[in-house]
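Worked problem 6 (solution included).
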Amino acid sequence: MVLLRGDAAPGRLRGARALWHSRRVSPRLLLPVVLVVAAASVGVGLLARDLYHRPAVAKADQIAVPSSAPSSVPRSAQPGDPTVRLSVDAAQHPDGARVRTVLQEFFDAINAHDYDRWSRTVTAERSTTTPRSLWMSDYESTRDGTILVHRVESAADGRLRVLMTFTSVQDIAKAPVGMQSDCIRWRVVYPLKEEGGELRVDSVGVNGSSSQLQPC
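Solution. The predicted structure is:
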């Protein structure tokens, strides 16, 4: 008999099969291993999906601590740190980090007396109704600090309502009517809305009954 390439003698075939069966892992032992590997793969996939969809969160140094309260800042150091911080409650809102980012740019622009930078943080309507000359006159001596976002709420009209406090110092001549002080603590509700894919500070509700003021 002529053996072709790939053939083997019958005795050798029987020996090979016997060797395979003697070393083959039992299905009963293999099944738990397969299940563990599969579970680990699913867990990694879920973790990756969760990380991908998880919204940005504020860093630890952007979360308010008790020492950041306005009363803890001495009069000589007012208005205090210009960093915008979030309460724990505000930081837990899905848009908390985005709110902090736009407000930080908003207040940085005021402190730098930079109208063009400020106009990029507000809605087109607010920018249009606040001309450069008026804005520069109102804010030429203003510095803001001790800025704390207490709460972020989603409104029915798709906007966000941001309850916050901050301290401003300015020339007395530039202080609001009825509050002639060079240092003022503000409690306000800022409306924010999506515009061009970014959050912007809107004009409605910034002044008037939504603002509470007291001298430092």
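Discussion: The two ends are 109 Å apart (CA to CA).
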